[in-house]
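Worked example 3 (structure in, sequence out).
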């Protein structure tokens, strides 16, 4: 479980550098930062540079250049063909370039063990005319952050990413749990050292890990890192996912962020804690109310509840996501918010006197297969819509709604989340606020891709159908 212990106001220019360069060093400006990066590259004998970005699905893509080309790449960017990247350009408009974000420089820790030391930068994608590419997930999030900043708000997020570690069967990836451990187990948890190694690697990237433990299902784990402004957190989440996979591979294991890899077991979620700060203070907090939530926080929650069906297509983006969003497990099904209620879609963690900065809301439906940039962008857009239109949040639901039936749900006046990616995509298709946040290009690409995915899934004959029907009919 992720905890918030307070926050410092910050933007992308003042956030903690993944390269562990200090803020005083960063204050010398881009030129000074570049010089220090080049100095560190030389000191650590870096030979190659990976330039990373994500497609609309959140999959990390990268180009690799020799270190001799780094200074030129910083000054003049790197051109690439975007026509084969999911959700990017068409073949006749494929030329694009990557602009390195110097704040994201880091030496990839496991590359030191193999020789050929490699560093990385997270990049922004640009079009030939010098404008940001509208389909770049990082740019989409930046646009929503700018909306919030114009209102004086800094949006903080803290995700809890769960994942499974599976053994391989003669080199074949199968859902074979690496251990028989359960929640917080130690004696049957074979991945204690693996989680520590992942944590050490994350630390080398400048990511501040707070807790690491075994999760509920066999082979399931969670490593939580400290919250930050939304862009830093999205960068960290993307880094987290490829780090976990890389370290697992060292142990001949397969790490997966698939939401529901094993039937009958808990799936993997990505609960997201959210808060707004203004002038260094948490504006979700109000000492005068019984639940310590400000009117602005309630408006933010109301906006997310209003748009959650469309949001779900982004936060739960694959067919398998909806095998997790079913009654009987720990994932929410009904659209409601509650105070300290873990069965609610949006939970308000218990207030602790003296920790006003930790006041936040936790969206519990997202899963780790989502693109964190797009997920945070639509969550922020929905919350801002609630604030700008002064939406009223419904009454809090503080009873266990994991197992309520349809009649009780009607009594509570609560609706349910989409039951599959098709339903979620239809909601996304008609929600103008979420469409506006994604932009026409990305919205159209996602709707088309998700409809095709559902149609392909519908036509597929599964092993379950063979087991149930083949002998009988």
């Amino acid at each position: 479980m992720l905890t918030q212990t307070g926050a410092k106001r910050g933007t992308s220019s003042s956030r903690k550098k993944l390269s562990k360069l200090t803020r005083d060093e960063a204050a010398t400006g881009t030129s000074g930062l570049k010089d220090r990066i080049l100095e560190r590259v030389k000191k650590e004998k870096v030979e190659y540079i990976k330039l990373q970005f994500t497609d609309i699905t959140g999959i990390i893509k990268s180009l690799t250049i020799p270190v001799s080309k780094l200074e030129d790449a910083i000054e003049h960017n790197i051109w690439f063909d975007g026509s084969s990247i999911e959700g990017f350009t068409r073949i006749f408009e494929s030329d694009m370039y990557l602009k390195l974000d110097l704040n994201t420089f880091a030496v990839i820790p496991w590359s030191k063990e193999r020789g050929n030391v490699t560093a990385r930068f997270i990049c922004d994608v640009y079009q030939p005319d010098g404008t940001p590419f509208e389909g770049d997930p990082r740019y989409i999030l930046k646009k929503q952050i700018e909306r919030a900043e114009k209102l004086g708000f800094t949006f903080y997020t803290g995700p809890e990413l769960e994942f499974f570690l599976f053994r391989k069967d003669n080199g074949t990836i199968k859902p074979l749990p690496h251990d028989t451990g359960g929640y917080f187990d130690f004696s049957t948890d074979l991945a204690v050292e693996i989680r520590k190694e992942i944590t050490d690697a994350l630390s080398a990237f400048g990511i501040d890990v707070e807790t690491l433990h075994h999760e509920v299902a066999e082979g399931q784990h969670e490593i939580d890192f400290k919250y930050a402004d939304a862009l830093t957190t999205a960068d960290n989440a993307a880094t987290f996912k490829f780090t976990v996979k890389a370290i697992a591979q060292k142990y001949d294991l397969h790490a997966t962020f698939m939401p529901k890899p094993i039937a009958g077991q808990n799936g993997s979620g990505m609960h997201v804690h959210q808060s707004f700060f203004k002038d260094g203070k948490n504006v979700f907090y109000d000492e005068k109310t019984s639940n310590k939530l400000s009117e602005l926080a309630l408006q933010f929650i109301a906006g997310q509840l209003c748009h959650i069906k469309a949001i779900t297509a982004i936060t739960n983006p694959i067919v398998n996501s909806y095998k997790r969003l079913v009654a009987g497990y720990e994932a929410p099904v009904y659209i409601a918010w509650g105070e300290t209620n873990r069965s609610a879609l949006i939970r308000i963690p218990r207030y602790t006197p003296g920790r006003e900065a930790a006041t936040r809301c936790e969206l519990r439906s997202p899963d780790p297969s989502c693109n964190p940039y797009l997920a945070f962008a639509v969550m922020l857009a929905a919350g801002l819509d609630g604030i700008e239109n002064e939406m009223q949040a419904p009454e809090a639901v503080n009873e266990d709604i994991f197992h309520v039936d349809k009649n009780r749900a009607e009594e509570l006046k609560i609706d349910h989340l989409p039951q599959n990616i098709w339903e979620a995509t239809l909601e996304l298709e008609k929600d103008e606020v979420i469409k506006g946040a994604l932009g026409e290009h990305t919205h159209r690409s996602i709707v088309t891709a998700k409809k095709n995915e559902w149609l392909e899934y519908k036509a597929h004959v599964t092993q379950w159908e063979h087991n149930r029907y083949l002998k009988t009919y």
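Notes: Confidence is low (pLDDT under 50) at residues 1-28. The CA atoms of residues 281 and 357 lie 7 Å apart.
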